[in-house]
Specification:
Layout lengths: L2 H6 L18 H17 L3 E5 L18 H6 L18 H11 L3 E6 L5 H5 L6 E3 L6 E3 L6 E3 L11 E5 L8 E4 L10 H13 L2 E5 L21 E5 L12 E3 L3 H11 L14 E9 L3 E9 L24 E8 L1
Helix pairs in contact: 2-7
């Protein structure tokens, strides 16, 4: 998760168990469990993935409760972790991309995430097959007409507060709100209903990189058991739901999922990042001696929106009959 996100959250004394030691299954046992999981996935008719902060740590985003997690270090009075990336610079992990391939192969039916880093959407999971229980730091929502706006920059607020932008629908124009929950906020009904529906239908819920401590989200995977479904947990620390699981794997999520994909003969696609910007070019003659050209680069989300992915612009022009003067403007 983003350090900025952690700082924006309201203070809460009880954040659950933090700082537990990590457990690593011995290599032979780990391989045996990976093959067992692969067979379970192969036989599954309705696979659901339930993801937590642990799938994004290899993307450079620290978790909450690990040995170097944000809350673990804060409780020890050590401040925030040093090695981290803001959300907009993070790229989907191997696990994120493996889930994309499983979805494309029609094996994975739905993803439920507690993360707000937008890496599932960025990786290519379709929005209609994703429930983001705690929101998305890059998503704004119009409270009047319900339109969602996915940004390429991190929205400045959390707690479903009004932002500085308005709905672009000419018939609406209402002030937008962020979609990220604070501690006291209830889970969004739309996301929760979809998540519950798929957990009840699932014959296998794969819990990846989550401590399964935050309620009510942590109880969702259990709903598959009532209809004969199974739960598999892949996490480096024990969870309160381990006894309910058919299989518990203690290993790095990326390593486990890479092994599963290899066993299933499925290739993990590379992540290719695509960013968009709006360019406008204008010119004005100056007393027939030279032409002044102005190139403006702005966000597709509006002239005042940040261009988080762009640092600088370089350019040159060839001399013509008239002297050219080129100005580059990065807004």
């Amino acid at each position: 998760m983003s350090l900025g996100y952690a700082q924006k959250l309201s203070y809460r004394e009880d954040v659950g168990t933090v700082g537990m030691s990590e457990i690593f299954d011995p290599p032979d046992l780990l391989q045996q469990k990976i093959e067992e999981l692969a067979l379970m996935i192969k036989k599954s008719k309705h696979l659901v993935a339930f993801t937590g902060a642990g799938i994004s740590t290899s993307s450079g985003i620290p978790d909450f409760r690990g040995p170097k997690g944000v809350w673990t270090l804060q409780r020890a009075g050590m401040g925030l972790p040093e090695a981290s990336l803001p959300f907009h610079r993070a790229m989907p992990s191997l696990t994120h991309m493996a889930l994309v391939e499983l979805e494309r192969a029609d094996i994975l039916k739905f993803v439920i995430s507690q993360n707000v880093d937008s890496l599932h959407l960025r990786s290519g999971i379709p929005r209609e097959k994703l429930a983001e229980l705690h929101g998305n730091s890059f998503r704004e929502v119009c409270p009047a007409c319900g339109i969602e706006y996915i940004r390429d920059f991190e929205v400045e607020t959390i707690g479903m507060k009004e932002t500085s932008r308005r709905c672009s629908d000419t018939k609406c124009g209402a002030k937008l709100k962020d979609s990220v929950l604070d501690w006291e906020d209830a889970l969004p009904p739309k996301e929760m209903n979809s998540a519950e529906k798929h957990c009840r239908t699932a014959d296998l819920v794969l819990c990846l990189g989550t401590s399964l401590q935050i309620t009510p989200a942590c109880n969702l995977p259990l709903k598959c058991i009532r209809n004969g479904g199974k739960i598999v947990i892949v996490n480096l620390q024990p969870t309160p739901k381990d006894k309910k699981a058919s299989l518990v794997i203690h290993g790095l999520v990326d390593k486990v999922i890479a092994g599963v994909m290899n066993f299933l003969s499925l290739c993990i696609p590379p992540y290719i990042r695509i960013d968009f910007a709006q360019l406008s070019l204008s010119h004005s003659p100056k007393k027939n001696t030279y032409v002044k050209w102005t190139l403006r680069i702005t966000s597709i989300h509006g002239p005042r929106a940040p261009l988080a992915f762009l640092k600088s612009v370089e350019g040159n022009s060839k001399k013509k009959a008239l002297q050219d003067v080129v100005n580059f403007s990065l807004l």
